[in-house]
Design a protein that fits this description.
Order of helices and strands: HH
Oligomer: single chain
Largest sheet: none
Radius of gyration: 42 Å
Helix content: 40-55%
Strand content: under 5%
């Protein structure tokens, strides 16, 4: 008989074997203990397969449920931060603890400093554009 490879084929083969053993129980008295052990094992195997199927379904549902919870959590976090900001005020430095940047004064604008010795700092210009190079049609002599 060929070896069954799929779970369904294995169970079908085992059930057929158990049915045949039950039909011939009177002519096989020495096989009674083995038949009972096999029958119990078949029942445990079916229970485990049912559990596996249940866990597979749960495994597929879990990411969807987790995604939904994360979206709801983000909305609730926005609400909570809004309530904290409303209670503490938009300029309170205590907002930083809640991950909210407080409204602060702008930092003073930095101005470019000119060297006092009359030379230009590297990478700076005088502000007057340099003329483009002269192109002549005369051949060089």
């Amino acid at each position: 008989m060929p070896v069954a490879s799929s779970y369904a084929d294995v169970i079908k083969d085992w059930e057929a074997l158990l049915t045949a053993a039950l039909e011939h129980a009177l002519s096989l008295p020495d096989a009674e203990r083995a038949r009972i052990a096999f029958q119990e094992h078949l029942a445990r195997t079916k229970e485990m397969k049912a559990r596996q199927d249940s866990l597979t379904a749960a495994r597929q549902e879990t990411p969807q449920a987790l995604r939904k919870l994360v979206l709801e959590g983000r909305d609730l976090a926005i609400r909570l931060r809004g309530a904290v900001k409303a209670n503490l005020g938009p300029r309170s430095e205590g907002l930083v603890q809640f991950g909210i940047p407080p409204i602060r004064k702008r930092a003073p604008r930095k101005t470019a400093t000119k060297p006092t010795d009359g030379t230009l700092a590297p990478g700076t210009s005088t502000g007057t554009p340099t003329p483009p190079p002269q192109v002549t049609d005369k051949p060089a002599a």
